[in-house]
Amino acid sequence: MAQPGQKSPWSPLAELSSIGIAMVLATVIGLVGGYYADLWLGTKPWLLLAGLGFGIVAGFVMFFRSVNRANRELNGCK
User: Fold this and answer.
1) CA-to-CA dists, residue 18 to 3, 28, 31, 57, 67, angstroms
2) For position 76, what pLDDT does the model report?
3) How far apart are CA 56 and CA 47, in angstroms?
4) Three-class DSSP labels, 8-72
5) Angle between helices 19-41 and 46-75 in degrees, nearest 10
6) Which of 5, 13, 29, 56 is the most exposed place for a label (fewest CB within 10 A)?
7) Which residues contact 78 (CB under 8 A, 6 or more apart)?
8) Given a cut of 80, is residue 78 above it in pLDDT?
9) Whole-model pTM above 0.90?
């Protein structure tokens, strides 16, 4: 257990455990957004593929940010 005023070593691990869900959600949101944009504009399958690409990129950006933040917290640096 952490002392008062100190962060628990479990908090970075808790953040890292949510990475998988965040990556999947970003990909699905991009995919669904591209699908509906294709339906609206009639550009099948181009916006679906673009949305999928943006979702995957957003997922990896969140992944790297979370890993860097957790690494800083574990090392005690800012």
Assistant:
1) 25, 16, 20, 17, 11
2) 76
3) 14
4) CCHHHHHHHHCHHHHHHHHHHHHHHHHHHHHHHHCCCCHHHHHHHHHHHHHHHHHHHHHHHHHHH
5) 160
6) 5
7) 72
8) no
9) no
